[in-house]
């Protein structure tokens, strides 16, 4: 078990169960800073802490400590946009390294900025293009949100970037 693999598993479990770090800490009987440090891979976990976390998440301790297979399929924005099954998209994210997820998120954010620029330029759009761009933007924002739990230090959200870009254009 590496710090990185444990950190990823803890972030994924918390995201899947829709819990805050505070809620996990309360369930497990450990401090919130400990939960945060473990999720960031900044701290080693002692076995008693692993037991408490496993119980809080309702999983066996083995699920937390077993290393994952090394195979990591490539993430691509085009594939994730085509994939309609949310569970399949999450499996692809879970199997990816933090570096892959980071590159994927940068691609999503670039696409959001491009779509945002087009949405702010209605004079250069064909009839009906506005609705398509809005659907595309919504799909991109959903992909961004789904990917957030799978990376340790998150870049600004696509919405934050879009708001920043639109504020600069105004």
Architecture overview:
With 170 residues, the protein is an all-alpha fold. The chain folds into two domains: 3-65, lambda repressor-like DNA-binding domains (434 Repressor (Amino-terminal Domain)), CATH 1.10.260.40; 77-169. The chain is 68% helix and 0% strand. It has ten helices and no strands. It has helices spanning 3-16, 21-28, 32-40, 47-57, 61-65, 77-82, 86-94, 98-119, 129-147, 158-169. Helix 2 crosses helix 3, helix 2 crosses helix 4 (47-57) and helix 8 (98-119) packs parallel to helix 10 (158-169). The longest helix is centred in the middle third of the chain and has 22 residues, at 98-119. The radius of gyration is 19 Å and the shape is elongated.
Describe the structure in brief.
This protein is mainly α. The chain has 10 helices and no strands. It has 2 domains: 3-65, Orthogonal Bundle (434 Repressor (Amino-terminal Domain)), CATH 1.10.260.40; 77-169.
Write the layout of secondary structure elements.
Layout: H1 3-16, H2 21-28, H3 32-40, H4 47-57, H5 61-65, H6 77-82, H7 86-94, H8 98-119, H9 129-147, H10 158-169
Helix pairs in contact: 2-3, 2-4, 8-9, 8-10
The total tally of domains equals: 2
Distance N terminus to C terminus?
Answer: 50 Å
Task: Kindly provide the radius of gyration, computed on alpha-carbon positions and rounded to a whole number of angstroms.
Answer: 19 Å
Mean pLDDT, as a whole number? 80
Shape: elongated
SSE order in H/E notation?
HHHHHHHHHH
State which percent range the strand residues make up.
under 5%
The tally of helices reads: 10
Helix/sheet category: mainly alpha
Give the biggest beta sheet. none
Helix content: 55-70%
Strand tally is 0
Low-confidence stretches: none
């Amino acid at each position: 078990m590496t710090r990185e693999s444990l950190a990823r598993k803890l972030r994924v479990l918390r995201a899947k169960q829709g819990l805050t770090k505070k809620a996990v800490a309360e369930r497990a009987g450990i401090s919130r800073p400990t939960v945060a440090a473990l999720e960031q891979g900044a701290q080693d976990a002692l076995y008693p802490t692993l037991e408490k976390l496993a119980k809080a998440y309702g999983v066996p301790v083995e699920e937390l400590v077993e290393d994952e297979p090394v195979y990591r399929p490539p993430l691509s924005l085009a594939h994730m946009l085509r994939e309609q099954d949310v569970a399949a998209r999450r499996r692809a994210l879970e199997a990816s390294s933090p570096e892959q997820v980071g590159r994927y998120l940068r691609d999503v954010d670039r696409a959001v900025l491009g779509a945002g620029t087009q949405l702010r330029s209605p004079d250069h759009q064909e009839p009906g293009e506005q609705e398509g761009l809005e659907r595309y933007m919504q799909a991109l924002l959903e992909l961004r949100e789904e990917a957030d739990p799978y990376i340790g230090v998150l870049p600004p959200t696509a919405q934050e970037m879009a708001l920043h870009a639109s504020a600069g254009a105004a």
